[in-house]
Design goal:
Layout (H helix, E strand, L loop, with lengths): L18 E5 L4 E5 L12 H9 L5 E3 L2 H11 L8 E3 L13 H9 L7 H4 L10 H24 L1 H4 L1 H8 L5 H27 L5
Parallel strand pairs: 3-4
Antiparallel strand pairs: 1-2
Helix pairs in contact: 2-8, 3-5
C-alpha cells in the first residue's frame, strides 16, 4: 500500500493498495494497480478477481485479510476465497510472526527487506527494479512456505486439505461490513458516552 508519509506527500498521487503479487514456486506476477493519473488501473480488476475468487487456488500470506479489505475499498465486488494467513504459524499467544521471520525459520532463507524499500513510493510508474525484486521475493516466500509445510504434513497443508479447511471461512464482504460497523460504533462511542453523562442524576 502507498501511505502518505510526511516525506512523501508531495511525491505521490495515489493512496492505498498499489501492488498485488501472485506467485508459484516457479514464477511470479507483479501487478501494478497504480496508474500515472492517480487512479487504480481498471484493467487489472477482472483478472485479479477471477484468481482471488477461485477457491481451488490457495492464497497465502501474512495479514492477508487486512490486505484484502484494503483492496475491497478499491474494487467493491472483490471476493477472495481460500485465504491462508501464515502469521499464526508458530506464533506464541497474540504475538504473530512476520513473513521475514517465517521465511527464516521454515525455509532457512533470509528475505531481503529494508524499511527504506518498503516505505518507498509504490505509486511511481514504472516501479524500480528493486521494488519489483522485493515484490517477487515476498510473493515467492508465501508460496514456498506453504509448499514446505505441505511436504512436511500433507494431510494438513496439502492443497485439497487447505481448500476444504478454508471453505467455511468468512467472506471478504462480510469482514468488510463488520469493519464498517466497528468503525461507526467507535466513532459514535464518545457521543453516546457524553449523552449518558448528561443524564446521570446528581445525588
Amino acid at each position: 500500500s502507498v501511505a502518505v508519509t510526511p516525506w512523501m506527500k508531495d511525491k505521490v498521487n495515489f493512496v492505498g493498495p498499489a501492488v498485488v503479487q501472485l506467485a508459484t514456486l516457479d514464477a511470479c506476477l507483479v501487478v501494478h494497480l497504480a496508474s500515472a493519473n492517480g487512479r487504480p488501473s481498471g484493467s487489472c480488476g477482472p483478472p485479479l478477481e477471477a484468481v482471488l475468487r477461485d477457491e481451488t487456488i490457495v492464497k497465502a500470506g501474512v495479514s492477508l485479510d487486512q490486505d484484502m479489505l484494503e483492496l475491497r475499498q478499491k474494487w467493491t465486488r472483490l471476493e477472495a476465497r481460500s485465504r491462508l494467513d501464515l502469521g499464526g504459524i508458530g506464533a506464541s499467544g497474540s504475538q504473530r510472526l512476520g513473513l521475514k521471520q517465517l521465511t527464516s525459520s521454515i525455509l532457512g532463507v533470509d528475505l531481503p527487506k529494508t524499511r527504506r524499500l518498503t516505505m518507498s513510493n509504490w505509486s511511481q510508474v514504472p516501479l524500480t527494479s528493486a521494488q519489483l525484486a522485493y515484490s517477487a521475493w515476498e510473493a515467492w516466500a508465501g508460496a514456498a512456505i506453504v509448499a514446505e509445510l505441505a511436504a512436511r504434513d500433507p494431510d494438513t497443508f496439502g492443497t485439497e486439505a487447505l481448500v476444504a479447511l478454508l471453505r467455511s471461512q468468512r467472506t471478504i464482504d462480510d469482514l468488510y461490513h463488520c469493519l464498517l460497523y466497528t468503525t461507526y460504533a467507535a466513532d459514535d462511542l464518545p457521543r453516546v458516552a457524553l449523552g449518558a453523562r448528561r443524564h446521570v442524576p446528581h445525588q
